[in-house]
């Protein structure tokens, strides 16, 4: 063809445009029109249609209709082929060219009654003779003739010309190849070339040497001034380095580029000979990475790849922006008739490059592997590892979808080993230059990092400039911060002073115990105990995973780094509980209200509630953790859903705009009505302005307290937030009191907008009333102004943080999961972006799963009452307390109020003051501006009360009272339930208090305005004698209104003082009694003392792992406890251990109706010995009871051997002065042979067990055929034990002083040992294994498959949640 597109002369350069489209796409019409407008039209336009019903692409509109409407058929020959099986762009081009060759080979068809046309191809022979003269008929001339004697085959919109045979002929077979060069112009359906694009590309291709591929400059589809691409740069790993900044304007700054590494396939001009030599584009690539692969293959074949900046093409980048979606095609028998315009009308989704990320990442990895020289296996393994690492980073950047795509792309490419091998072989066939020749064209990773770093900095600076507050706003924010710091400091001083006074005796100690608080071992011991399936307490119990110990082990390990042991860490947590609770409640209350007074009240109520103070005094670790963590968890939860209140500074320019015609007319109308009165009312206007200034000052103070500084993220909403002062100086404009239940408010968004008329009316009245007072007789117009409130956006980071914090809550008290999961599910359903709460639910559910799973299994095995009892068992020593009444429970006290506050007027006053919180919370259902939040909060409060009531009525263990006396079934602790209830009531009460505050403020402002109007009436009456009779009544009404307003404010001030006084009074009473130390219900903690002799600790830490038998006198007799450590440790009082011990020792006593305590009484019982409630059904406990009886009776020669066989190394008798049972037991133990008395210590009298049959009391021992026992030293405790077995003779039995259980397994030198039953005379309840005469390494473990699955699941979810909780900002790709 010629450059002008004429029909004369032989053309040395031919161009075949190949357009690939999925049916009549929304962009194809513009692309075809752009091709038709080229100054140098291509010889043939080949449209390759890949749409079909099989792949779901296209909408059924024929492409021929678009060709006809675009006028392309009048410019050049258009051929349409359909390749439904094409898999990618390159595959579509290759298949389309093959189909086009078949189309040309099919030739033309004769029309009926028509003759041949000169120059038209009739057959191969005719075509050859027709072109023998060297000339050819112009395609344009054939198209302009209208009708002719021949027609093209199906797919050819005009007859086939002889010239097209040369286009489809193989390049190496054509004799005219040196003189006639054919170029393939590759076009996407969304790439529209500008006029002259093809001409410039052909000029660049023919004027340079060795050029194989020429690419155009790509600009924006809708805005051609924006640059997209001027050639491609990439690293050796195929990572693109597009140094064009998104949104960069084309000013010719990149027009000096020529040779580049690669160009995109959109608009690329490819030499047909080069295309055939390298085999086209790899069919497994596309729509991404194909241009890089084709260009690098051409360069390795010895050809140049250049970019021609003067050739410009508009590119929509539909695949990159995720705009390509399968069309919904109707296949009905009678489809709806559509016009041509409607046929291609498609509603495109919003551009989002993240939709195409997986395909782009897969293409990059495929190109990387194909062009790399490293071993494919190692490279694919590295892809999987790299994909996992990048997925973790994406999760940390709050992009879970991209994390899934990262891992999915890596796994997909890892499974394409054969495809990558084929790609390498394909490149090796035509490679003529070394790979190192491309080195200078590659970009380095440092350059890519530098470009991205610069872009990130520019974007951060742009956001900072957009969100930068004004100087006035900065001053107001600083004033708010100073006010809050002062108030918070006062709250913390009060809380710290009361706490320090009450805990004064414990402040110097490093470790404390007492009440329900046990001892804590090292962090390693707690971590191991958290994941073991065997509870190493007493004689051992099968248990499950305890996530709470793992959670405590984390900060304990950190404390160890600075020299603090675990006991010191727990003691510090207990001693700082009150100030920490106040601090957490202060910030949590800030999400509900921005008034510092209400936040201070909420902080004091939460920190000085009886639930926290009593849990602190009694050492209730689980309830203490719930109360301390719950405010922070609710704070993160509200921020996750965007329901947290933020600071909103209302400067004078908020909402300012140019007046519209309607607003200007309204202003003129008001001005014309009032201008006549300016002369004689100037003085009255000034007086009214001074009165209104006072009202405005109070209203402004209220507005200033409406938010907390939200930082860079929250200030971005300032542009969309419009607010006004509710008590502004605009007279006659009222803020409506009733706020509808708009879902946007509960979702933390301001959905309603201020109409321009309302804004203009407010502006007009401000201007007029600054000059003149309004007419008192004129009615007040009511205009709804926007609320001065602002909320957060919602945050995935906050959702993950909330999940981790709520995991601590459900780990401490698993029963709380029943309430918290319901609340989170409600929030996820009722909020706009509730899907974020998956990050909250996942860690909370998996953390609570072990306890609930154990309760479910126990319920199926022993009855559902036992399952509920296990679930409600609190961690810690079982301690009974006086049962509170329903009113006390509603007031937040888990103990009868009479046990804390002396009866009388003070007790009644404390109850009334504490009940103000739930009352105000219920009022919030009716007056709160956020009724949906109030409903969910009250629901949580009711759930907490139900949980507290259920705990109080469920016996969970067997223990003494707080002072350590008595032995009775102990009911669950209601502290966690009361904390949930209090948090719900406070969440509903704070918005209610703010609403009441606002109503009173408006009432007072209305009273002042009424007084001002009355004064103006008096003034007018004095100047007008006709209205003298009406003056006194008006003045009296104003005075009465002012007096009523003052009385209302005085009553409100008194009520506010009472509300603030309530928590302080409760805290003062607790601090006084705790300081005196005479009420164990209030303070049972004490400093830790040595509880066992040092020699006993040596036995416990030795290889034999001897145990201590502690005997304590109770009114019911001697209480026997086996210690494996220096006292009662946390592993001894896990819920599973407490529940199992209670069921094995007093199963019937737990269900005895006589043991249901009355209100205000402690459940202490005394049952005669024949009563079946004290029958020991467990053989290990029964054996221990017999040994204690025999040992305390004295003169039993065999009891020492039995104690040693039970693993007892030391017997400890607690001293009780004047107690007959203790004295009798001391005498019996002293007279028992085999018990060697040790020195008396503060903990009591102790005896060492010496036995001839068992030289050392050991946890493991070997029994030979004759019954002789040999102790075995071991390492490790609990379920992981290792020992060295000596060689012996005959069959031997390994006996463990642990309860037999199916979960025990043992291996000797890797060989699994068979579990056997130990004979009754040697302890039939013990675990035994058959051991032969061989020696070797013994490993004993206790495992459960379900527990192992739970453990790994918890680890995985916790790790992912920690990654998601990292405060990293995601970088979203621009869709321009």
Q: Could you explain the architecture of this structure?
A:
This protein has 1376 residues and is α+β, with helices and mostly antiparallel strands. Helix content is 47%, strand content 12%. Strands 1, 2, 3, 6, 7, 8, 9, 10 and 11 form a 9-stranded mixed β-sheet that branches. Helix 16 runs parallel beside helix 21 (596-607) and helix 35 (931-952) packs antiparallel against helix 36 (975-1023). The model is unreliable at 1-11, 113-148, 173-178, 327-345, 652-657, 676-787, 1026-1041 and 1152-1174 (pLDDT under 50).
Query: How far apart are the termini?
Result: 37 Å
Total of DSSP H or I helical runs spanning 4+ residues: 43
Low-confidence stretches: 1-11, 113-148, 173-178, 327-345, 652-657, 676-787, 1026-1041, 1152-1174
As a whole number of angstroms, the C-alpha radius of gyration is 43 Å
Helical proportion? 40-55%
- Overall geometry: flat
Strand content: 5-15%
Could you tell me the number of beta strands?
A: 33
Structural class: alpha+beta
Q: Main sheet?
A: 9 strands, mixed
Task: Provide mean pLDDT, rounded.
Answer: 77
